[in-house]
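User: Can you predict the 3D structure of DRBM domain-containing protein? Sequence below.
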Amino acid sequence: MTADGDAEPCAGRAGQGLGDPGRPRDGSGPPPNGSGGPADGMGEVRPPSERLSYVNKTILAPMVRVGTLPMRLLALEFGADIVYTEELIDWKLLRSFRRVNDVLGTIDFVDETDGTIVFRTCALERKHVVLQIGTSDPERALKVGKLVENDVAALDINMGCPKEFSVKGGMGVALMANQEKAIQILRALVNGLKCPVTCKVRVLPDVDATVAVCRALAETGIAAIGVHGRTRDERPQHANRNHYIHAVADALNIPVIANGGSKEISCYKDISKFREESGCSSVMIARAAEWNVSIFRKEGLLPLDDVIKKYLVLSVDYDNNGSNTKYCVQNMLRELQETPRGKLFLEAQTLEQICTIWDLGSYCRERQLEFKAAGLLGRREICPQVLRQESSDQGNPAKKLKLQDENAVSDDVVTMKVAYLRSLFPTDLDLPKTRLLAWTRRERLGMPSYQTVQEGKLFQSVLTVNDKKYTSSMWEKNKRWAEQGAALVCLCSLGQVNLETLKADGSVL
Ligand SMILES: Cc1cc2nc3c(=O)[nH]c(=O)nc-3n(C[C@H](O)[C@H](O)[C@H](O)COP(=O)(O)O)c2cc1C
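Assistant: Sure. Here are the predicted structure tokens for DRBM domain-containing protein:
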């Protein structure tokens, strides 16, 4: 990893313009006069030695679902200097609370409606991680900035996403067409935050218009700008307009980060070539890193199996969600999914099952048990009571929560902590509700009835059969799953499903 303070002088590098001689060109200085910063007494800007420098950096680009903590840490281990998070939408972060996770050694931003981890970070990446947000509103963006500014190195605004969801919401590339709003957002952040602020844009069809809009954005006092050399309508197969990026780099006096070169990047040397062709001191890599993140190694690519193993160890160590891990490994395997091992992988559902394929199954299981013993609140422990209390404590770990009894049989309700894992029931006939209905018909009993309560985005169902009530103490993310969970408790209690089977398949821990 390059040290933060090793800013190479811009002179001698192609591009990077002339600009304001009074400002360091590495983006590490405070914002220019008139754009806020310490002068207006709002954000207390970090001293230059602590501010992230964007000169001569090799960067992991923001990638939805790919840029989560294990991938970012692996990119840093392999030599990336800066790592961007996936884009997170402002309102999602605003409905989260900050939790110090003393079991994993992480800071978690937890969705207060369903307990999902919206953003997980840790001290190892603190000086290198840039949180990218999607926003269309200066006030919301600033609130997010305030929420995270002590936990990240910088904040980035996505102004390049062409997806319908973003554009319809006035976010992403829509901001390139609404410069006034884009400038308001950047000004609010530059003026109000201690950490550097950047944005990532796409080029416009016209090179001069691209330079003009980037210049206007740079004048807000941002520390750097990422430029993807494709227009909003161009797709990855189109050639990247490196000469447009070059023109921007020549015109601006802040670091420009070149992006869009992955099609031509298959080894470390290609990164330098892209850097030269685009006239920028820094480059940002997305797909080439998604496929094999060891692209950041100066010594050369590692075999994919070695990369996957390292990635899985980090996924386990940071309790990364199984489906996110599967998505990332799938994007590494690509055509290898057709191999026997790839097919085995496609069938795997849980993190442990994925790890088993790379001989890390027992490592995963042992670590998970360790975490549970140390009090890690996993998906199964999330219930409205926990979220309400944690949200009001702001994740203060000093207060330990008293969780309800997991497996209790009272006269009123038979309760077990059973997770409904959809993948275990391939056909409708296998579903717990279907099986329970068939059983009640055989026994000539009344139809099972379900009463479901919703709190936030969590659901819990109480099932009544033959005047007896059954429920799972695990809150599910939708009504159907909550009902299936209650039916599973009932089937188990009636001896129609074996408890040992539920333990073996992971429904009961
Ligand atoms: C899986 C995936 C997810 C992406 N998600 C984001 C994102 O969250 N924010 C963003 O600004 N760009 C996102 N992008 C675009 C990349 O950051 C980058 O601009 C683009 O892939 C071109 O760079 P490359 O040639 O190095 O892949 C994504 C790209 C991919 C492949």
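The chain has 18 helices and 16 strands. The radius of gyration is 25 Å.
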